[in-house]
Amino acid sequence: MSKDLVILAYSGGLDTSCILKWLIQKNYDVVCYMADIGQDEDFEKARQKAKLIGAKDVIIEDLRNDFVSNYMFPAIQMGLVYESRYYLGTSVARPCISVGIVNAAKKLGAKYISHGATGKGNDQVRFELSVYSLWPEGKVIAPWRQPEFFNRFQGRKDLIEFAKQENIPVSATPKAPWSTDENIMHISYESGVLEDPTAEPPSGIYKMTRDLNQAEDYPSTMDITFEKGLPVSVKIPSGQEKALIINDPLNLVRTLNKLGGQHGVGRIDIVENRFLGLKSRGLYETPAGTILHVAHLDLETYALDKEVLRLKKYLQEKMSDFVYNGFWFAPEARYTRKCLELSQESVSGTVTVQVFKGNVIVLARKSAKSLYNQELVSMDIAGGFSPEDSTGFININAVRLKEYARFAGGQEF
Amino acid sequence: MSKDLVILAYSGGLDTSCILKWLIQKNYDVVCYMADIGQDEDFEKARQKAKLIGAKDVIIEDLRNDFVSNYMFPAIQMGLVYESRYYLGTSVARPCISVGIVNAAKKLGAKYISHGATGKGNDQVRFELSVYSLWPEGKVIAPWRQPEFFNRFQGRKDLIEFAKQENIPVSATPKAPWSTDENIMHISYESGVLEDPTAEPPSGIYKMTRDLNQAEDYPSTMDITFEKGLPVSVKIPSGQEKALIINDPLNLVRTLNKLGGQHGVGRIDIVENRFLGLKSRGLYETPAGTILHVAHLDLETYALDKEVLRLKKYLQEKMSDFVYNGFWFAPEARYTRKCLELSQESVSGTVTVQVFKGNVIVLARKSAKSLYNQELVSMDIAGGFSPEDSTGFININAVRLKEYARFAGGQEF
Amino acid sequence: MSKDLVILAYSGGLDTSCILKWLIQKNYDVVCYMADIGQDEDFEKARQKAKLIGAKDVIIEDLRNDFVSNYMFPAIQMGLVYESRYYLGTSVARPCISVGIVNAAKKLGAKYISHGATGKGNDQVRFELSVYSLWPEGKVIAPWRQPEFFNRFQGRKDLIEFAKQENIPVSATPKAPWSTDENIMHISYESGVLEDPTAEPPSGIYKMTRDLNQAEDYPSTMDITFEKGLPVSVKIPSGQEKALIINDPLNLVRTLNKLGGQHGVGRIDIVENRFLGLKSRGLYETPAGTILHVAHLDLETYALDKEVLRLKKYLQEKMSDFVYNGFWFAPEARYTRKCLELSQESVSGTVTVQVFKGNVIVLARKSAKSLYNQELVSMDIAGGFSPEDSTGFININAVRLKEYARFAGGQEF
Amino acid sequence: MSKDLVILAYSGGLDTSCILKWLIQKNYDVVCYMADIGQDEDFEKARQKAKLIGAKDVIIEDLRNDFVSNYMFPAIQMGLVYESRYYLGTSVARPCISVGIVNAAKKLGAKYISHGATGKGNDQVRFELSVYSLWPEGKVIAPWRQPEFFNRFQGRKDLIEFAKQENIPVSATPKAPWSTDENIMHISYESGVLEDPTAEPPSGIYKMTRDLNQAEDYPSTMDITFEKGLPVSVKIPSGQEKALIINDPLNLVRTLNKLGGQHGVGRIDIVENRFLGLKSRGLYETPAGTILHVAHLDLETYALDKEVLRLKKYLQEKMSDFVYNGFWFAPEARYTRKCLELSQESVSGTVTVQVFKGNVIVLARKSAKSLYNQELVSMDIAGGFSPEDSTGFININAVRLKEYARFAGGQEF
């Protein structure tokens, strides 16, 4: 009788290697799935490791272009920021990987998907809600939430012991005292020594960005062009005739990551509210994402009608929560995304940005679609604007206030 | 027969000096009112100038403590930011000055208040809505909106000619090709050469902050303490036994302005949406305000319940618009302010901040009132948290998504 | 030399007849424009009256189909309700008429549009903001806001005197001591004796609906079918083989108006907040509109995803204010309308409704697109739902609450 | 060794009687807790039944005054309505009962609370989130979510068999083919035959209200007085010298229930979205609650400032969801409630209401605190209002629209 097939989201690390073995021991066929979304990883080594442990097959899929074009850039277009600061680099990667693994599961006729996410975090939620949205009849095995597993493996020590016993190769390098998640958009750092919010992060923790005291001493400038809110090209440096022009999304992000990293751009150190109701402390570095977000915000405010901007911002706040909480494929997120895209019809133009010492400084912006009217706003030109109208405008706005003041009888002042 | 009394918001500059003379020529008694809210101004010289022109009296009132404690600090407590970037340094100054001038008008039995704000800007609105809220029976004379005045004085040249003719002293220094508004919280720059949003601002324009290439080469650290969301003390440098501790609000702001300025902190260059429906380009520098806002946001996210934070953020967005538009004393702003203050009951604690090269970097935060629970979040401690519960949580959240996926029949994927 | 042409929104009543004469006396050519949006009016008589007074021409345009299909039905689809009660029957008529009059003005090469709306009301705003949106270079003459006019005609008596003197026919019937606005969607009643909010409205004031004590003694039932949120057919009575089926929008509204009127459906008596900051008391009767709104709300809640419903409701509240305030053609309203339409993609189905004694009672609803799953919700069927999952769901939701309770130390309870 | 004590929320019905016995068989001491919140129940009979089954004790607590004053009236004050129609009669009862049972548990040193709510409904969530908020160290036993229980008792038949076998008295009356929840505020009906949303409810199902064809033939009028948004007295009939005046909250509700019931007021038949993501169909009758809600809405719109009203409405929508979902004691609900109470400071006054044939008709309203100004709004009085100001107001509002129209180049029209 044939065994049930599990597709395991495999990282090559200790946890998912032990899970792989454990699933095989529980009599499943296991195919390992690895998505390349730009993390620094030796995929071939991981493949061999999985094969050695007993994986029936290993799928390694390059999703970098998909991730940049269909998740990272839309996040910038929609202006997604969680709790005013976090650009959601991990949150937008989860649905991307989920599509890959669900497609593999459907193609191979698997019954289960499995992963190594823990029971207190956001990623289990993001991963599983995406899977269930894409594949409602699919089933998920989350070993870290099964008593049989988490009682047996109560700490890293137990995993290492199991690995040794089962001939699973264990990295000689000691694990960093925190955990990271990496993709082309960002690296996150959390847990371990970082759990104490009163302690400064250890020096040398960041990988994509330089410390400010080691940042470049001369600023870099660039022109970033957006069409309908999506980044379409970068010209470096700004205003030069023989500048470098990059249109390829993946290359664009890589270049801005490198440049932003040299200038120490895009670090945050925050305490955030997880979906499960816990507060947790996290560090993030998002060099290209930060540059693009700053430029997009500037262009958007410049191009959009004042009231449309406010509606858009409300929807953007809702969408940021949806995405953080794992609802990328939920009906409300699909709906909100469509509305946000509609808002960006006229967000086309170019923003000149200077990157320097951790700062992203907007120098200038232009757009054929902006409602900015220099003649109208100019102090020196009447420009179809009668100052007397302002008197009426103010007086009518004051009607309600005067009524209230009379009514309150001055007692509150 | 006695003349009607006008209280004129006087700056000592060309515009309000000409307005002063013009009002006198129109047979009003005029008392000039100057509020000291921290701007760089020779008040005595202005007093003599006003007297020379014919002011019946000149009132100079030091509102700096009032401004910091009752307008700037509440703005930080409430988290006020206009269109994601502007900390409202001018907007919160207007109601403060309005209280001063209305009190003077009531005390002196004046019938009118007059000002030199132009007909396209926000300040006329903020000023007059405040005045009408505080003094509903009061009347405002806004010469720049009266055809008799604006037709006569069509440009600066006309004003200078009038000044010469009427023996009003005219500054020998040529006027900067932009206009500024200054107080202890910030300086704004707009109009003139800045009206072109595609042009980088002229170098040397900023007064409170150094350019990044001239900023200090060593970071400064400090501990900023808040009680119920209001800044109460700053300790510089952080973690030193013999540190400088400042509790006096005015002194606190001055010190952070100086420090922030040395590190090039708090500049923005934006296009914003005015209340009247125009877009305008403005530069702002807000050193102390930026440091305090960054620290407050960090503490607030740390201390507040997740859902309270979201409600607070909605109200904060509304309040930012109310304040920008001049409705500080309107019923909706009074109400929203009370609600926002209620949200800050537990926002007490200390944030350690590093200021360096234009950046305000949060290093650590502590609060006796935070809902952060290190034990609960730790990967290594079960801490009253059953991983199995997460399974149920995810499955129930997926009920709706699976239904939708079945319903949509996969067509959208 | 040719005269400037004015298109006057003409009603045939005393006010606009006097305005017509006054404009002619001020040396304008005047073409009168009357839109038929279902009001009870003798258009031919009005045409002759205008001609007699001196109108260069009179345009009478039947906009009833346009009004029902492009304004009233979208208002139902979008769920527009002002301040929880008013279905915006007047507000949605103004932009419809404005399109007609602007088209006429453009076609005839007019320079001005004129109307008889007063200076305290909403209609002047709705009318003019629509005109300026559709025709930014157009100009508006609003006599009731011009001192020359309103000082001369200080009351109805002055108008009647002017009319007599200028041989303008004056109706023999005394004017009702309130004013009304009528179209196929509703009739509104306000001002005059209605201005006292503590006084019950005079009996016999309502024209479209019977008093409850004269309403039919037997209920009527009907099946109302919607496609993408828009009403497409009504079947009367419900469930009969040989029922009357109406698909034509105008006929549909007429039929529901008659039926609703017989059953006394759709009256409200409210105090509302005008855009100008005044509160005013109004009576409205909206028989067909009320039936359609009740049915639409039921279907929508049935068909839409829970979270999409909440987003839609937020946008609906914003849109209701936009429309009430006259911003139908503003960018924010165009944008919001597109978003609201997007939300209605799956709001298709049939609602069975009983109309009786002023009540609109939903009896049943069905939709091929509803997310309602009887099997899932049934107490008697497990249906892919594990009760144990609810435990996890509750426990995880409680994590935050327990933390708060521990933190608050019980002091608040 | 002493047994662990469980406090069981006991109803006297089949489910909780079987649960009582089951808990005793599982070696717990069980004290039954019954809250009297106005449901039609023979409490003494239930007490004897519980004793007979083996309850260690039975606590019957009269919470009717507490429920009306601290849950039902605040719900009216806050304007709570779920999904535009449901007045939350069950949702507000759960936290009230939870306080009672938690107090009992604490007093008696119990370790557990148990209840008979099922695993698909809202009540389990409301009940348990309240318990955990009030008593974070408490534990809940929910038999209907434990496989041991729900696998054993798969339907009503299994329960009856168990009851017979264990000598638990079983009612001779056959159970209605739906389930109800009853308190002084409302009765709800759901599940069973009601699960089919296309089927009209069985006739005779409603208990508190008459069918419209049996409703009284003469209207009743009353004056309802509110202070700070809370109902404080009812005078019946309105305007009579020798009217009945009721101040006692419980009596007030009872009287309005009776009167509303005679007039067939307060029924709804809806499909709603449960917190767990299911849609379910429910019928509710809320006679007094409906009358009070209609009156309160009228007074509130009359008394509140326009913009405060909008902020209040946003918070009211959020609060309605919090309460429906069981978060009455959560930090966000405590906070929102304080904000909503703040909004009601001036909602004091009297509304005259007619109740007739299912309708609640507002006839008049008065309030010493309303911002309504008859003089200001009157067409016949200039009243400190210059019509010319409206011109400026409209023109300034049009600035943005004209810009947009010019920009869009007419293409969208």
Automatic annotation (TrEMBL), chains A, B, C, D:
Source domain of life: Eukaryota
Pathway(s) the chain acts in: Amino-acid biosynthesis; L-arginine biosynthesis; L-arginine from L-ornithine and carbamoyl phosphate: step 2/3; Nitrogen metabolism; urea cycle; (N(omega)-L-arginino)succinate from L-aspartate and L-citrulline: step 1/1
Signal peptide start-end: none
GO molecular function: argininosuccinate synthase activity; ATP binding
GO BP annotation list: argininosuccinate metabolic process; L-arginine biosynthetic process; urea cycle
Catalyses which reaction(s): L-citrulline + L-aspartate + ATP = 2-(N(omega)-L-arginino)succinate + AMP + diphosphate + H(+)
Keywords: Amino-acid biosynthesis, Arginine biosynthesis, ATP-binding, Ligase, Nucleotide-binding, Urea cycle
CDD domains: ASS
InterPro entries per UniProt: Arginosuc_syn_C, Arginosuc_syn_N, Arginosuc_synth, Arginosuc_synth_CS, Arginosuc_synth_type_1_subfam, AS_cat/multimer_dom_body, Rossmann-like_a/b/a_fold
Pfam families: Arginosuc_syn_C, Arginosuc_synth
UniProt entry tagged with the keyword Ligase: yes
GO cellular component, one term: cytoplasm
EC number(s) recorded for this UniProt protein: 6.3.4.5
HAMAP family (UniProt xref): Arg_succ_synth_type1
UniProt cross-references to PANTHER family, sorted A to Z: ARGININOSUCCINATE SYNTHASE
Subunit structure: Homotetramer.
Protein name as it appears in the record: Argininosuccinate synthase
UniProt source species: Danaus plexippus plexippus
